[in-house]
């Protein structure tokens, strides 16, 4: 499709850049001045605090002019208007590139004072070392290299999906582009290569990746570690490729390339040759990458570019004038879109109503009524991954904002609902018999856990609440996804990660598939919920918590194997508190903390303690309880539990390849082993007194076998 | 090179498969019977316990015959002889493929009884659900998809490197091949794509990747999530590509392809069309992937292949006979190699001496004398990343077994030593002016943290102790590398991971680059040392610990910023214990636990407590100490410290983009903030008594700012 050109608007040219008053060929004089000014300003901004990343930003100046002056649809006075183009800076260390253009085109918050706060001690700076989503004009927090590419794929995917559901002939209410700037490094990170495969497979022509090809990384020439034919590779991945030879100055060529990309039928890769740190004495060298250039070189840069070496942070009025039309252009885009929506409301009132809910980030249905009640769950042993299906399938079938996907584990994770439609390019039907289209909300991520999480960050970041991504895989493989899951938590993006086959209960696949330490990472991670429900009712509670957590991702950790159901004890409301009395016991001698798939061992141990050891045990969740010793039972590394318990029966080694029940037995998860250990521990406590426990956490599992 | 064909040996054919008594074209009858037998046996092995992965193994049978009968150099009676070919099963779930061929060619440990233990409750099974390095004939533990490709690149890299150092004209003492079997999934995982780029860049013609192209994954057709032109992509990455159309039966074609690959000048990708679960009623379908076929289908498979449906686990003597020459062939390879070594010893006695040390996995020099003494370190504030350079550079320059690399952070991590030679293909000198050759021991991994770790597992697994990989990057990016680091720990492979820029001291790069939760993962991970030294002397201790840990990887976590040096307190010997009294104090009121880059806050807090609050503080490392309250000070999530401390001053949120010192101040890491909190805490303890502390861990950092 050509998303823009179908919307005929006043002053739009054939290439679909609306309101383009002038063309880069007419503006050559202004462009030259803007380039000089921009590059000297970057050098100054890094020089003042003797640090930062000037080289890339200076090299990319012409690309920035082609984007912000002649190509992108955005509105400085309303940075978040819904149908804006999204810009992603995957090479986030060049953030001054973006900050400075946001300043030049008139984003009110991005004052020169703010620009100058880059690398300062100002705690209210909106110019951090990498772009952060909280700030106007920033669509996603990138930073760790490669993430931005995946985020951009998610943003472009959102456009295609929302367009497929809500656009109608003559009413393209969602048709924005996503422009992603990358450096050499982003083409080496696996997460980017996974995302590139998917963008090509889905033919996301709403996505344009602009490669700042300066052939320099920290170590030196890219040839040190990468000599592939990148254009041929991108074509093999289903992308179109455009080359631009003089990316440092040729704004007209860049503008034509960007405009061509816009009317493409595939995602486009624009390979732009640039010179890192152009103008500096270290231009084209790795030294130009990540350090200030020193007063002398900065002065010589200014002399070279015909600016006054004595003056700093200079932006001439002509340069501001040159970019001044950005605000009007932006407001015109908004107005067009608002007018389009008004006509849309008349033509398609119901669709318009639903669309408004999406724009406001509201659910399209009352989800609280959709999750099955306790009575509707089977009381026979059930794997909690199946319980998750009971909860999520009806939600996904009704809630239009849910996009549910899996890293190639559809038969195992139970996330596919009856009547689901796959998110696919419609052409695949004819080319290889694959059903689905862009309106589909079930995503086959392939065996790409990292991209699944990082693309989902882009889906969630398109517009807060418009899309709620649900990912799924085995819990162990969320160690591949961890960098993406972390970035979701850091950005406060709501997502639900369905992590099945947790702990050693996974069984035969062996230690390579049995998570032991991973839970410690997610329990320590800020702004992330990690929940291990023990049965269907607690799984329902986990989904309610996840749906309420509109500013956090949630991992729901689930079992492969059948779990006892405890309808008489488990409670979705209490579970949301993260902790509650499971089984109360008058004057208990001990509190057993049961967790997720291992609750069954806590319950059986409780019974055995009573029968064989005359010990009364209360079973709880995490909550602290002072007056009796507390023992946690979980088949993970115990790290972190010491805060809530006095002793633990847990894992201190990797797992073993055995059938699930045999694996548990092998590591001593068996009431016949646990109960005596607990009784012995209680004997010691009785002898030495509760005080003896302080801080002296006791490991009760001596590794058995 | 053509590693084999240059060694002319009795009975070697032109294609370089020595001692090939017969050719696949002559053996068609035996081959057909072997294929039938193999496929029925796989079906039986999965059927007995109603589980496992039969489909891939059955589809790959002909590939296995081409490998184990006509191509690979291995010795069943001495599985670990040094110059053997390495086989890696990256699609590890098809492990029955490998186990069954190990049985057929006569690996003594792999009895039929052991084969039958697959998916059983036998705890001493050597047939786990994925191959494990502890067992004969298994080179690496694969499992999580994509890892095996990277491991294979590491094994192939080891061959090129050792060959470059030790081979001499007519004396190819190291010239083995690495054969890596992959499935569709391995071509989607980022870690594999990173490794593929590097193998192409390095022209590792010692590597052959065999693609079991059955176009089926768990979700169904590969077209659901991948429609790239894989051959074109591999060529773009610098690989040669060979297609084999009938991979299910055409052993002659497969043998020719493997033989061509052997005499290639680039790494080779053999794209083999196969049918998953061939013979079964679900052949070619996703259902054939990961479940037993049921008694009826297994019977019909046997009928289809002309075997008796009533009989199970049948291997006719003719089939054993067919593979019987494997043992003699293997012993012949060994003898040749041993004879070659004898001649080599006479011709190159010194080189031979060094080579023997490498084969035995011994250091080539007495490393204990190489690390600088305390007196040689500067006493002025020093970043511990620089201290790491002081320790590692002399080690790397002397120890031939060290291969040190970085994920494109040479200027930041200080791992490059004077006179280092890069590991590169010599051609790069002429093609793009890059210096280096295969004898080089400094590796430019590019921006590929995950592949860096997973390829290093292959380097370390080539032969225990022969190569000691040292990786380096910012600590935060070890979240990308985590799946590889974990597999190293799981396999007990010695490696040193140099993780710089730890905690919020990293500063301006911001929260995206500041690790908060990551340490919790590595502290919880079995068989991994995670060490945060506080100054140069403790850094020396960390290296000694890492070099002594011959069965574990070690992460040394280091600061970007300058750290106070404490020569009067710090001690490399005590540091190796993981905990010791740093500053003793008669009748101390509190024990402060100082860690790594935050030791300075413990020391300053101690002083301020004394001066302003009349509180006596002892400073310690982790060790427990009962009689006084213990406070840990570290800029990470506190999870796990509760075991060793009663209170903590730590992080509960992500970081902030500020200069390092400002970032610490922003989060309250400042003795002016910490000391009063500690004093207040001690007041409470005095009032309520030590017993009041039990388990009630106290967070002293209320987030300041």
TrEMBL record, chains A, B:
Coiled coil (residue ranges): none
Keywords, comma-separated and alphabetical: Magnesium, Metal-binding, Thiamine pyrophosphate, Transferase
Catalytic activity: D-sedoheptulose 7-phosphate + D-glyceraldehyde 3-phosphate = aldehydo-D-ribose 5-phosphate + D-xylulose 5-phosphate
BP GO terms, sorted: pentose-phosphate shunt
Record-level GO cellular component terms: cytosol; nucleus
Names of required cofactors: Mg(2+); thiamine diphosphate; Co(2+)
EC number: 2.2.1.1
Pfam families: Transket_pyr, Transketolase_C_1, Transketolase_N
Domain of life: Eukaryota
Sequence ranges assigned to domain Transketolase-like pyrimidine-binding in this UniProt record: 382-565
Segments passing through the bilayer: none
Enzyme class (EC, first level): transferase
Region (Disordered): 1-28
InterPro entries noted in UniProt: THDP-binding (IPR029061), Transketo_C/PFOR_II (IPR009014), Transketolase-like_C_2 (IPR055152), Transketolase-like_Pyr-bd (IPR005475), Transketolase_BS (IPR020826), Transketolase_CS (IPR049557), Transketolase_fam (IPR033247), Transketolase_N (IPR005474)
A molecular-function term among this protein's GO annotations: transketolase activity
Family: Belongs to the transketolase family.
Protein name: transketolase
């Amino acid at each position: 499709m050509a998303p823009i050109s179908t919307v005929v608007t006043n002053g739009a040219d054939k290439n679909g850049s609306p309101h383009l008053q002038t063309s880069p060929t007419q503006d050559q004089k202004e462009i030259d001045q803007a380039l000089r000014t921009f590059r000297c300003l970057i050098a100054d901004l890094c020089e003042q605090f003797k640090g930062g990343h000037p080289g890339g930003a200076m090299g990319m100046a012409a690309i920035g002019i082609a984007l912000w002056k002649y190509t992108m649809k955005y509105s400085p006075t309303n940075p978040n208007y819904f149908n804006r183009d999204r810009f992603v800076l995957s090479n986030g260390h060049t953030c001054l590139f973006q900050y400075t253009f946001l300043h030049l085109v008139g984003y009110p918050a991005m004052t020169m004072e703010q620009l100058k706060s880059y690398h300062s001690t100002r705690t209210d700076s909106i110019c951090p070392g990498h772009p952060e989503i909280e700030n106007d004009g920033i669509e996603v927090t990138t930073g760790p290299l490669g993430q931005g590419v995946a985020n951009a794929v998610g943003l472009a995917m959102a456009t295609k999906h929302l367009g497929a559901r809500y656009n109608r002939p003559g009413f393209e209410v969602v048709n924005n582009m996503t422009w992603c700037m990358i450096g050499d490094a982003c083409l080496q990170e696996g997460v980017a290569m996974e995302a590139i495969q998917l963008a090509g497979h889905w033919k996301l022509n709403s996505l344009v990746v602009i490669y700042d090809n300066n052939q320099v990384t920290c170590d030196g020439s890219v040839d040190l570690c990468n000599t592939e034919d990148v254009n041929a590779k991108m074509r093999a991945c289903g992308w179109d490729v455009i080359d631009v030879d003089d990316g440092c100055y040729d704004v007209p060529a860049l503008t034509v390339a960007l405009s061509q990309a816009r009317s493409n039928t595939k995602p486009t890769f624009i390979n732009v040759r640039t010179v890192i740190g152009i103008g500096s004495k270290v231009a084209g060298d790795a030294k130009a990458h990540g350090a200030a250039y020193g007063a002398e070189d900065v002065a010589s840069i200014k002399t070279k570019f015909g600016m006054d070496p004595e003056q700093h942070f200079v932006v001439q009025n002509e340069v501001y004038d040159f970019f001044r039309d950005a605000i009007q252009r932006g407001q015109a885009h908004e107005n067009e879109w608002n007018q389009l929506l008004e006509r849309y409301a008349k033509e398609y009132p119901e669709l318009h109503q639903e669309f408004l809910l999406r724009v406001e980030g509201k659910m399209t249905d009352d989800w609280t009524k959709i999750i099955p009640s306790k009575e509707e769950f089977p009381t026979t042993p059930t794997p909690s991954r199946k319980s998750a299906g009971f909860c999520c399938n009806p939600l996904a079938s009704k809630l239009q904002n849910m996009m549910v996907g899996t890293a190639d584990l559809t038969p195992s994770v139970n996330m596919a609902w009856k009547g689901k439609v796959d998110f696919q390019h419609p052409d695949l039907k004819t080319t290889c018999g694959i059903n689905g289209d862009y309106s589909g909300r079930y995503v086959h991520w392939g065996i790409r856990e990292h991209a699944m999480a990082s693309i989902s960050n882009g889906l969630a970041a398109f517009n807060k609440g418009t899309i709620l991504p649900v990912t799924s895989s085995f819990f162990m493989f969320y160690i591949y996804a961890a960098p993406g899951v972390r970035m979701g938590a850091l950005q406060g993006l709501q997502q639900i990660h369905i992590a099945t086959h947790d702990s050693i209960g996974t069984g035969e696949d062996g230690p390579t598939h049995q998570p032991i330490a991973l839970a410690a990472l997610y329990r320590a991670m800020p702004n992330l919920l990690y929940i291990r429900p023990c049965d269907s009712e607690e799984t329902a509670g986990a989904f309610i918590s996840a749906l309420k957590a509109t500013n956090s991702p949630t991992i729901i950790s689930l079992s492969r194997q059948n779990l006892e159901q405890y309808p008489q004890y488990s409670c979705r409301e209490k579970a949301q508190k993260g902790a509650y009395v499971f089984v109360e016991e008058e004057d208990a001698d001990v509190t057993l903390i049961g967790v997720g798939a291992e609750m069954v061992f806590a319950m059986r141990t409780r019974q055995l303690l009573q029968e064989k050891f005359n010990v009364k045990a209360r079973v709880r969740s995490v909550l602290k309880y002072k007056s009796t010793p507390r023992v946690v039972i979980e088949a993970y590394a115990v790290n972190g539990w010491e805060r809530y318990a006095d002793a633990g029966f847990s894992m201190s080694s990797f797992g073993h390849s055995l059938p699930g029940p045999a694996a548990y037995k092998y590591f001593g998860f068996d009431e016949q082993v646990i109960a005596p250990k607990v009784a012995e521990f209680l004997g010691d406590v009785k002898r030495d007194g509760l005080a003896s426990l302080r801080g002296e956490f006791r490991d009760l599992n001596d590794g058995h076998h």
